[in-house]
Amino acid sequence: MGIKGLQGFVATVCPDVCRMVDLREIAEKHRIDHPDFPPVIVVDAMSCVRYWYTPESWVCGGQWREYLAILEDFIKAFMAAGIKLVFYFDGVVEEKKRDEWIKRRFQNNKEIARIFQFIKTHRKQPGRGMFVVPSALPTFTRFALKSLGQKTVCTLQEADFEVAAYGLEHNCIGILGQDSDYLIYNTCPYFSIEKLRLDRLVTLMYSREHLCHALGLSLTHLPLFACLLGNDVVPERLLEGFWHKCLVTSPHKNNSYSRRANVILAVANYISKVPCSYSSLEHLKEVLPLGSDMTLLYRGVQSYLLPGQRSPWIPPNVTNCQTFSLQEQTAMCQDKEILQVAKEQHIRSENYTIFNILSSGETECSNSLEDDRDTEIPGQALIYRPARQHIYSVLLESGKGGAYPLVKEWFVYFGNPLQQPELIQPVQPSVPGGTPDLKTLWFAKGPDVEKQRYSTFLACFHLQDGMEELQALEAPVAAFCCLLAYLMMQVSSLSLEDLNAFVAVILCLKGKSAAQLAGLQLPQVDSRAVHLGAVFVRGLTTLLLANSACGFPFRMDDLMPWEMFDGKLFQEKYQQSHRGCSLEGLLEGNESLYAPFHNLKSFICKACTAKKRTIQSRPRGDGFITGTQQREFNPRFQQTHRSSFVPPYHNQMRGFLWRNPQPQGKKY
After folding, report:
1. SS3 172
2. CB 342 within 8 A of CB 439
3. pLDDT at residue 86, rounded to an integer
4. 467 near 461, Cβ under 8 Å?
5. Partner of 566 at 20 to 30 A CA spacing, among 8, 181, 186, 642?
6. Which top-level group of life is the source organism from (predicted)?
7. What residues have CB less than 8 Å from 22, skipping those under 6 apart?
8. Left (φ > 0), alpha (ψ -120 to 50) or beta: where does 421 sit?
9. Same-domain status, 457 and 572
């Protein structure tokens, strides 16, 4: 979270703390001083994603191929300067930060509500001033960077601590991010992602030493300084009285500064007069209303101490609470081998959320770009919950010994007050032959086990009967069908027009470059399509979770959004479909896509029919219409828009979109 107002204070009150630097020059100096060690920048990726996402469109579900190209260009710029990058992502939400996490989620809800109101009023995307990152952007950024050959780390504790520790331990030339906590940690230099000019590799560098000089402090003062301004450990509400006392006695009060700037100066003035000893901290505890928790200041200061560092504020007999230790005896999963593999995969960014569930039995999902006023589409958290319940069962092997451990979910959706986690019961999936145990799924080898992995994965989405047809498809297309069939089963308001739009996207996306997709212009933006785009992308993270749990029947790269989805393209296909566009128009005149279109659609409709779900036609026309008015359709497309669609299904999946080229048809 950082220290509220500190970075703004530096920019306005003491700008000498930061200066523009040339990263190429810093790297070259490092090479001269350390010829055996290449220059490395450690990147706080979570604070960078909003600066990396620069495609013009951001509300429609994500411009994933454009974004992938942007990340590739970012990496190339540093590689050209001989600078290695190491990317860190938050792997957990620590308990001490849960309240702040919840507070931010409710703030995000308000921002998202304003975005939907704007779209409904103006039928276009708001300006960048209302920007929120596309749903699941941090998750897919992690896998994107890994696919681009970068070292990508998912943390076991707070990311800023691990970033600062890595930077110090590996003598990195700096940390790239946007978090004022990096002004407090005694680690390598801190570079701003916000001010980075990629074309010239110049940015602002913040100096802790210059900050200390401006405030009359020493480096050892900084952790206590951060705590007395309020941080993730010491809440601001406990400090108001203390700040008032400091302001009264401060010689630096300036009416032209904001109150926060004056508080920062006053607290610095107070600390500068306090002897650096743990007895001083004991005295401070007496003047602060810390309630029953008198260890807050100790824990706050300790949170900034990196491995091997000590502080004069902390008695030598106090253990550094930042050291991560795996509490195996309290872990949800008692199998040490399983837990260790999950942990290693987690750190290497190879799985998704699995370690959190197996270790703490807790998981969370942030906001999505969902319209809370659309009562026809449930929250994505609820749509995918039945699938997650099956995945939890696979992971925790429910029912094999009578134990049914509950999983704690912190998922954001309309109506969830987030006052406590929801306790979710695992539910066994209907796997032919029974659910294999986790050791079989993860460690066993051979074609029979590969089949078990695939069938268990499909069973999590109620598609175990479609295994033969799906295995005949290219992996991204099979995954797409799996997700779309599940979505159509779960959400009864989804129509044939919605189905047509989704199927058209994956078929038309093939072969389109990032530049072609960037050039696609939308005359208007439909709010319901925005909502559906976010729901679909969140579904892809559910595929990642199932894939990780089932021993990777798919390559993770085959489940990525740039393989099967583009926000603007979906908007275009959605609007075309609901206006009654011809099949020729929907598929951009490519007749070779007609058969795949009908066959993919037939498979999905057959799967829905098996669950007694009939997909109805419900064209919404041109605009934000919730009614069911009918329109005249082009005859070539009319058959696929009948009021209900019964697929002429005769194993039509064979012969197109094969994993390997077959004589019966073409790959697309």
Report:
1. coil
2. no
3. 98
4. no
5. 642
6. Eukaryota
7. 200, 201, 202
8. beta
9. yes
Question: Maximum Cα–Cα distance for the chain, whole Å?
Answer: 86
Q: What is d(CA 547, CA 552) in angstroms, rounded to the nearest whole number?
A: 5
Structure token pair of residue 604: 């999905």
Residues present in the chain in total: 668
E strands along 118-213, which residues? 151-154, 174-177, 190-192, 202-206
Which has the closest alpha carbon to 296: 313, 271, 308? 313
- pLDDT of 34 reads 96
Residues 6+ apart with CB under 8 A from 460: 387, 390, 391, 394, 429, 546, 549, 550
Q: Letter for the amino acid at 54?
A: T
Does residue 63 belong to any structural domain of this protein? yes
* Domain co-membership, 190 together with 287: no
Q: What is the mean pLDDT of each run of 10 residues along the chain (668 residues)?
A: 88 93 98 96 97 97 98 98 98 89 95 98 97 97 98 95 98 97 97 97 97 96 95 87 92 89 96 89 78 77 94 78 48 91 97 96 96 96 98 81 82 96 95 93 96 97 95 96 98 97 98 96 97 98 98 98 98 97 96 96 96 94 47 30 38 42 31
pLDDT at 623: 58
Structure tokens, 616: 């109805």
Bridge partner list, 152: 87
State the Cα torsion 526-531-536-537 to the nearest 10°.
100
- Considering its fold, how many domains does the chain have in total? 3
Q: What range does the domain containing 250 cover?
A: 219-275+277-303
Alpha helices in 384-437 (DSSP H): 385-396
Q: What φ, ψ does residue 565 adopt, rounded to 5°?
A: -150, 145
**Residue listed under structure tokens 């047809």:** 469
In the chain, count H helices and then E strands: 28, 10
3 state SS of 654 = coil
Supply the pLDDT for residue 398.
56
Q: What is the DSSP letter of 406?
A: P
State residue 290's pLDDT score: 67
Place of tokens 């490519």: 590
| Domain shared by 198 and 234, yes or no | no
Q: Classify residue 558: in a domain, yes or no.
A: yes
